[in-house]
Known about the structure:
- There is one protein chain.
- 44% of the residues lie in helices and 18% in strands.
- The chain is an alpha+beta fold and 367 residues long.
- The strands form 5 sheets. The chain has a 6-stranded antiparallel β-sheet, with no helix packed on it.
- The two termini are 23 Å apart.
Amino acid sequence: MKRIILSLAAVLMLSGFQAKAQEMMKLSERQKSLVAIAAMEAKGNINGLKTALDRGFDNGLTVSEAKEALSQLYAYTGFPRSLNALGALQQVLAERRMAGKTTDEGREANPVAPDYDALKQGTEVQTRLSGAPFNYTFAPQTDYYLKAHLFGDIFSRDNLSFADREIVTVSAISALPGCEPQLSAHVRGAVNMGVDPDQLREIPAVLSERVGEEESVRAAKAVAAFFGEKADGVATVDFTVWPKGELNTAYAQYFIGNSYLYPLSAEQGGPVNVTFEPRCRNNWHIHHSQVQVLVCVAGRGWYQEWGKEPIELKPGTVVAIPAEAKHWHGAARDSWMQHLTYHTHVEAGASNEWLEPVGDDIYDRLP
């Protein structure tokens, strides 16, 4: 299933971040690479991660810094993602050696003092990041892990600065849907840990360029909220999961707005992936002597039969449209939508009958 994401029409929202980024561009190329590396690690996109690592090494990132960033991320994205990413790092280093490229090893973190108190120091670091003391009394052991291990042990390693660590964390969480509260907390924490506000504003633009619109707009919304700015957007979908396909020119006369078609082995009887841009919908129509099945896989939209209440389409919604039922389907006003479609119980003489458009007077009643 694809996750709902925000983009395209949200370019208007992102343009503010991109314009400021063009003026200031305060993230170094090395830090931009950390943004891409962290987000690709969180997504589990190994090919994208390898590209980001290689680009980072070409722009001043050291092997020690890359290892540290990917190791730190196990606390945010889990050991499987982190270990896979470290394996990809090994592959990149081997490929660079074979290509004759020089890669700066960097320096290892300095050892901590023998009397170093990880819990005490971690509590201080966590308080600085949060802006106030934080105690997770509901789960004391987790509170201890956060303080002593994450902010005490990991953050004590000085081959990445606190600011760089928060750039890594913000970028990674931007690639994790459903973690918006944690993302907002770390956007605030990034500034507390020394990330310049202009650097923070630039992260969405880097994500847009190097990772994806989903991650970019998720970060943009969190950054905008931190600065008390409006961040409207239109939900879209991750087209790397369900391809968008080609513009549906053959049936354009029966649609309001643009739709796109991507056949999935249709010549073998497989379904077709149909993508609707926001507000796009097809005309009222009837499938004679056949049942049409819709399986929503991404975004949000609507299905309605004549004389009945509309049904909201969300990932996982399945609608079997009876033969001879007059109906329409399309995207919500604030979201792209994708559904798979195929026909079953097809009888001799089956056909489609296209009828009148679904006017704004009907469509605009929908939330």
